[in-house]
Specification:
Helices cover 37% and strands 29% of the residues. By secondary structure, the chain is of the alpha+beta class. The longest helix has 43 residues, at 375-417. It starts with 6 loop residues before the first strand and ends with a helix.
């Protein structure tokens, strides 16, 4: 196991209802190995947006402290996953001519053409979060994923540029600075969730990952092994709870329990005469506020909101012309995906395949965390290590090229001496 004394990296998923912190190190194969974790109720976050930095600091600090206690490691670095509607994507292109070409492409030039795709005029309140190359094009030939060393006169890239609200990115910086932890990266939760649940085959064939959280439903669409689009719907499972509370006139804590224990996305499967005694779920000040609730009516309330959320999801997929054209369909994850019969609801109404996914086994989550709610946090670990591996390969290629130059210069010198 690759440990650096008693230090680890902490992956922090900042959500509307919870903050999850996973302390991990890289194993000998470069995979994340979870050493400890902390999950606490979120504070200062609404619909994925950090609205109160001080409150968010308290919740994140508590989650990281638990991860450190359970692992025995200190969080030297942190990577943060954020969501919400302020995160968006757009297609962009970059191109550079190779001087004195045709000649061999270097890693520097690949890095440069990708960075050129990020040279865009953005709104004042937006900042570049990342650039994901979809394709590298060499002299007009697409699909050149490893172009270093090829002879060419021109190199281009087709990329997806990820942007986020400047204030939200700065809030992450402020929070980690207050924790005296180096912030090593900020990532979109929708991408992280996809890395946790999609297989390489599903990315190639085409799939939409729908991460249903409490405040938002984040979407990432893949095809031909590459990201196509990110989107977010500002509704989630908390909206379902609030609907139940308002329509059935029950306290919010009872509404949540009704949803979890008796809810389903298909009211037609419920006995229309079934009645639930909600008083058995009341706690604290709400203990005397219980009432009889029709389960059929409860599920109709749930169905209405789910239909609205999924209608918005379908519109985002259709914006790319891919609704009904993704062979792997919709892959559901996040806490909201646990609603019974949700995949069947999607298959019936959107006419596409659907399944519920939890983090892949090779991410090594302990059993107590092996649930769809942890997909974004688990994928954050993988995304972090993938980035580091890519950066390491690029550095190694640059060093190899410089070594080659040194030998060439030495030989040239010897020839000149003769």
């Amino acid at each position: 196991m690759a440990r650096n004394e008693d230090y680890g990296i902490v992956a922090v998923d900042i959500g509307t209802s919870k903050v999850a912190a996973l302390m991990f190190v890289a194993d000998d194969a470069g995979r994340p190995a979870v050493e400890g974790y902390g999950v606490v109720s979120s504070e200062g976050v609404k619909k994925g947006i950090i609205t109160d930095v001080e409150a968010a600091i308290g919740a994140i600090s508590a989650a990281v402290a638990k991860a450190e206690d359970t692992s025995g490691l200190v969080a030297r670095q942190a990577v943060v996953g954020i969501g919400g509607r302020h995160i968006s994507s757009m297609r962009s292109y970059g191109m550079i001519p190779l001087e004195k070409g045709p000649r061999r492409i270097t890693q520097d030039e690949v890095d440069r053409v990708v960075s050129y795709a990020g040279i865009l005029r953005l709104p004042e309140d937006s900042a570049l979060m990342g650039i994901i190359p979809r394709d590298i094009i060499v002299d007009g030939q697409k699909g050149m994923n490893r172009p270093v060393g090829m002879n060419a006169v021109r190199i281009e890239t087709d990329a997806v540029v990820i942007t986020a609200n400047t204030q939200q990115l700065e809030a992450c910086d402020t929070i980690m600075k207050s924790l005296r932890t180096e912030l090593a990266g900020k990532y979109a939760n929708s991408i992280c969730a996809a890395e946790a649940v999609l297989s390489p085959e599903e990315k190639e064939w085409g799939a939409a990952v729908v991460d249903m959280g409490a405040g938002t439903t984040d979407i990432s669409i893949y095809s031909d092994r590459s990201l196509i689009r990110l989107a977010s719907v500002p509704m989630g499972s908390a909206n379902i709870t609030n609907d139940i509370a308002k329509v059935l006139q029950v306290p919010v804590n009872q509404a949540e329990q009704l949803k979890v224990r008796f809810g389903t996305a298909r009211p037609a499967l419920v006995d229309k005469d079934e009645v639930i005694d909600a008083s058995t779920m009341a706690t604290g000040h709400d203990a005397s506020l219980g009432c009889a609730v029709s389960r059929s009516e409860l599920c109709r309330v749930i169905e209405a909101r789910i239909f609205e959320i999924l209608d918005r999801v379908a519109a985002e997929i259709d914006a790319e012309g891919l609704l009904g054209r993704l062979p792997s369909g919709i892959v559901l994850t996040g806490g909201g995906s646990l609603m019974p019969y949700l995949p069947e609801f999607i298959q019936e109404n959107l006419k596409v395949p659907a399944r519920v996914a939890r983090p892949s086994a090779d991410l090594g989550l302990p059993k107590q965390l092996d649930f769809p709610q942890m997909s974004a946090a688990a994928g954050l670990m993988r995304t972090c290590l993938m980035d580091r591996s890519t950066a390491g390969e690029a550095t190694a290629q640059k060093k190899e090229r410089h070594r080659g130059r040194g030998v060439k210069d030495l030989l040239k010198g010897l020839i000149d001496l003769n």
